[in-house]
Amino acid sequence: MTNAAVFRSLHNPADPLVLVNAWDAASARxxxxxxxxAVATTSAGVAWTLGVPDGDALTRDAMLAHLARVVAVVDVPxxxxxxxxxxxxxxxxxxxxxxxxxxxxxxVNLEDTVRxxxxxxxxxxxxVERIAAARAAAPDVYINARIDTYLRGADDLxxxxxxxxxxxxxxxxxxxxPGVVDAATIGALAAAxxxxxxxxxxxxxxxxAELAKLGVARVSLGSWVAExxxxxxxxxxxxxxxxxxxxxxxxxxxxxxxxxxxSG
Length: 264
Description:
Elements (H helix, E strand, L loop, with lengths): L2 H7 L7 E3 L5 H9 L5 E2 L2 H7 L10 H14 L4 E4 L8 H14 L3 E5 L1 E2 L5 E2 L2 H14 L4 E5 L10 H14 L3 E3 L6 H10 L4 E4 L7 H7 L3 E3 L3 H19 L12 H8 L2
């Protein structure tokens, strides 16, 4: 099977795809070496690595160049977080998807948030056009349509499900609903959405086994791992500058092991 076919097959509620999101080539290699069946990028982690904030501040070209480096260092399928598509029009989204496919990635997350002067949820009709353009531009790419109702505080099960159906009809492959950790809501979403459901997890979320029982096919750690890594950097700096000690570095991967991982 091609990487694209393998990636699609991994979305199975009986054995959910767990994505420990990477933010650069090194973190991708570490995650892959730990046993990842696929690697996903986190848009926040990628943006921070390149010195800009998350939320459409990164350029398409910078994202694609970074993505190509991630794809080049792992053998498993790679899926990219492309935020809202890097452009105002469906044609812009199509251009992004062509670039993702050319970089060798087999999937994308495409969110329905609008940023800028009037932030909020994109109208369904507009997002449908963007997903349709993405599908036409990259027929084999797995389009994980992210619905930000709960992140935006809408707490709207019916509205979320309606968006999911519209996005699937437009060509989405699966549905991503971040911001939900309540088991009853997750179960209701899985039952009402006729496609693989992706949930964003963190310390307060149900376990992978519990999510599988609820019908979840894909579990993402999102920016949490990058946040934890940067927390170690800040903790080590604060300790060294104040106490003059280095205990924050206990448990670090050794130089030799990490360097060997990067040797491919």
